[in-house]
């Protein structure tokens, strides 16, 4: 698949060539296509070649990826084929990349197989945060249930407080006048005039 851009500045006859292959996989019982290499041609010769990794889909589907790039921050699906050629001098990035090599019908892409893996960093972070929140919630529920069981335990064991009633005649026997001062005062003979039972 060749994308011809013509003359762009000093680049005469710029062409981006995508080399696609198809293979039959017995496990999936269908043909798959894959992008093997990407070549940059200008001035009527191949100037840079990149090997593609992980760009594949069933032959009846298309392949879609938000970024297909030679840069590490975009997972570097395009790798320079050799350290000796000019590929090291190029940075290639396709944004909103979609390709279908075979079985194109009525000029429209088929259902796309996306390059995003299920366990992307954002999804993993969300799963970790959900796990932490579930652990906090489980701990809080455990503490709440534990506190309720303690209340029921003490409720069964405890009996109401009992204060012994005192009669007026008992109080008369329990006190005697103090003779130290001019005012009439009394002190208790028996200090235990009330008992509390729990």
Automatic annotation (TrEMBL):
<dbReference type="InterPro" id="IPR008388">
    <property type="entry name" value="Ac45_acc_su"/>
</dbReference>
<keyword id="KW-0472">Membrane</keyword>
<feature type="domain" description="V-type proton ATPase subunit S1/VOA1 transmembrane">
    <location>
        <begin position="117"/>
        <end position="154"/>
    </location>
</feature>
<dbReference type="GO" id="GO:0001671">
    <property type="term" value="F:ATPase activator activity"/>
</dbReference>
<dbReference type="InterPro" id="IPR046755">
    <property type="entry name" value="VAS1_LD"/>
</dbReference>
<protein>
    <submittedName>
        <fullName>VAS1L protein</fullName>
    </submittedName>
</protein>
<dbReference type="GO" id="GO:0098588">
    <property type="term" value="C:bounding membrane of organelle"/>
</dbReference>
<comment type="similarity">
    <text>Belongs to the vacuolar ATPase subunit S1 family.</text>
</comment>
<keyword id="KW-0812">Transmembrane</keyword>
<dbReference type="InterPro" id="IPR046756">
    <property type="entry name" value="VAS1/VOA1_TM"/>
</dbReference>
<keyword id="KW-1133">Transmembrane helix</keyword>
<dbReference type="GO" id="GO:0030659">
    <property type="term" value="C:cytoplasmic vesicle membrane"/>
</dbReference>
<dbReference type="GO" id="GO:0033176">
    <property type="term" value="C:proton-transporting V-type ATPase complex"/>
</dbReference>
<dbReference type="Pfam" id="PF05827">
    <property type="entry name" value="VAS1_LD"/>
</dbReference>
<dbReference type="Pfam" id="PF20520">
    <property type="entry name" value="Ac45-VOA1_TM"/>
</dbReference>
<feature type="domain" description="V-type proton ATPase subunit S1 luminal">
    <location>
        <begin position="1"/>
        <end position="102"/>
    </location>
</feature>
<dbReference type="GO" id="GO:0030641">
    <property type="term" value="P:regulation of cellular pH"/>
</dbReference>
<feature type="transmembrane region" description="Helical">
    <location>
        <begin position="118"/>
        <end position="141"/>
    </location>
</feature>
<dbReference type="GO" id="GO:0012505">
    <property type="term" value="C:endomembrane system"/>
</dbReference>
């Amino acid at each position: 698949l060749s994308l011809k851009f013509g003359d762009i500045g000093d680049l005469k006859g710029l062409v981006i060539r995508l080399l696609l292959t198809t293979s039959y996989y017995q496990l999936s019982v269908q043909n798959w296509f894959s992008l093997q290499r990407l070549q940059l041609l200008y001035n009527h010769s191949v100037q840079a070649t990149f090997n593609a990794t992980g760009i594949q889909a069933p032959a009846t589907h298309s392949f879609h990826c938000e970024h297909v790039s030679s840069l590490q921050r975009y997972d570097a699906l395009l790798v320079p084929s050799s350290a000796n050629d000019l590929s090291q001098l190029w940075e290639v990035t396709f944004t909103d990349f979609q390709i279908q090599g075979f079985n194109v019908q009525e000029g429209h892409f088929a259902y796309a197989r996306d390059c995003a893996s299920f366990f992307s960093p954002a999804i993993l972070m969300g799963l970790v945060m959900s796990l932490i929140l579930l652990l906090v919630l489980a701990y809080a529920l455990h503490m709440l249930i534990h506190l309720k069981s303690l209340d029921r335990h003490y409720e069964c064991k405890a009996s109401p407080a009992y204060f012994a009633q005192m009669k007026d005649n008992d109080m008369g026997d329990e006190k005697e006048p103090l003779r130290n001062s001019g005012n009439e005062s009394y002190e208790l003979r028996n200090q235990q005039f009330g008992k509390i039972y729990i």
